[in-house]
Design brief:
Length: about 425
């Protein structure tokens, strides 16, 4: 819990959104917590940033709210999976802050074959899937964390194909090849993720033309990438209903240079170059049933686009604040931020912005090379150019297609309706 919260605390657009109190809680959403989770997270972030006390913060209110609304993470002294906790917490935050009103009828999922996509324009098809997603899901979590994949399913018997675009909040990457060979770096993991796979037997794809589960192929690619990219390295593998194994080999990832995902978004027109810098690392040491979580977190303000912000205050008077407290064998307390009240300032004593969090230990990480850890389990990357102010983040609404990540020309630039958008312009025909 502590390791994940420390990483979320470094995501400044999310922090500014919650701390400014300008958000509306969707109290009628049955999938949310009635604002219980979001208000407790906001209070904890406020305590972490603004408290002047040097003692630890014990987020009892948040833990009680988690017990009430996230039963899979109930109890103390029990270790839970950090990736599952991060996903579940973001999901509850999303449902609490969901701006979308439930539609009177479920939005239909567009049906698309390869032939249809070639005729209509693949980018427009992707936008139609995005519109269907936004009909039910609009929040700061969608704005920051949600991307889109494209999968092409093709029946090996009749050749029928279908194109499906799906939204995602995190990527789960394999760290071994199909032959079981360890993958050495995150680029190799991404290539394995995008490798076409064969589907057969119970895992076959249902072909509407054959009216049965058929042998088929699936080709998956990243299509639209979010401002904050959460990546889970698939270290745990289930061997039997009661046995799991952990792969502990070192998967390298960039810590100083950018993560460039250009090769993994084929054909897609990106608004901005898909380049990322590392924001946080959740590490897991030990085995699945008895491991220990720690975190490396980057509080360097240069990760963010600071346009329109005031000049930072003098850093000379800043001091690290509070350390986390450990309750039993679980991670249910969290450190106050080593940042001062000046939200955007760098932390003194950490020349590269990196800090290490391990229960009651909070210290600057002087050797940046240590961030590339063989124990890395969950990685958080921030996209270059992401604004620090949540008000400058493109708000994803189903009636504001000009703010969507999809590029398409418009018949009338002043129009608000997606239906007024034309297919993307093919510059190659000029």
């Amino acid at each position: 819990m502590n390791a994940v919260l420390q990483c979320l605390h470094a995501m400044l657009p999310l922090v500014t959104y919650l701390l400014r109190g300008e958000h509306e809680v969707n109290e009628k959403n049955p999938l949310g917590s009635g604002g219980d989770i979001s208000s407790c997270v906001a209070k904890l972030l406020s305590d972490m940033r603004l408290s002047s006390s040097a003692g630890p913060i014990v987020p009892r209110e948040l833990k009680r709210a988690i017990n009430r609304h996230m039963p899979a993470f109930r109890g103390t002294g029990v270790q839970h999976d950090a990736a599952e906790f991060a996903t579940a917490l973001l999901d509850k935050l999303h449902e609490d802050l969901n701006r979308a009103s439930p539609p009177s009828e479920p939005p239909s999922t567009p049906e698309c074959t390869l032939e249809m996509s070639e005729e209509k324009g693949i980018e427009r098809i992707a936008a139609e899937f995005w519109k269907a997603q936004l009909a039910r899901n609009q929040s700061i979590v969608v704005d920051l964390f949600q991307g889109q994949t494209r999968s092409v399913f093709k029946c090996s018997s009749c050749g029928h194909s279908r194109v499906v675009f799906e939204a995602f909040n995190s990527l789960i990457l394999p760290i071994e090849s199909a032959a079981g060979k360890p993958l050495s770096d995150i680029y190799a993991c991404l290539r394995e993720f995008a490798r076409p796979t064969d589907l057969s037997g119970d895992n076959g794809w249902y072909c509407v033309k054959c009216s049965t589960l058929s042998e088929s192929t699936c080709d998956t690619a990243l299509w639209k990438l979010p401002s904050v990219l959460m990546i889970q390295l698939r270290r745990f593998r289930q061997l039997s209903p009661i046995r799991w194994s952990k792969s502990s080999h070192h998967v390298h990832y960039p810590t100083r240079s950018q993560l460039d995902l250009s090769e993994f978004v084929p054909e897609s027109h990106q608004r901005d170059a898909p380049r990322y810098r590392l924001l946080g690392v959740v590490r897991h040491k030990g085995v699945m049933t008895g491991g220990h979580y720690t975190a490396f977190v980057n509080h360097d303000k240069t990760l963010w686009d600071l346009k329109g912000r005031e000049k930072p205050a003098d850093r000379s008077a800043q001091t690290p604040r509070r350390a986390p407290e450990h309750m039993g064998s679980g991670h249910h307390t969290v450190a106050a931020s080593p940042l001062s009240r000046a939200v955007l300032n760098l932390i003194p004593g950490s020349p590269n912005g990196w800090w290490f969090f391990d229960d009651a230990t909070v210290q600057p990480l002087l050797k940046e090379s240590l961030v590339d850890s063989r124990d890395a389990y969950v990685l958080f990357f921030v996209r270059s150019g992401t604004p620090v102010d949540h008000k400058l983040v493109r708000s994803q609404r189903d009636n504001q297609p000009t703010d969507w990540p999809h590029m398409f020309e418009r018949v009338d630039p002043s129009a608000d309706r997606f239906d007024d958008a034309s297919p993307p312009h093919d510059s190659s025909s000029d």
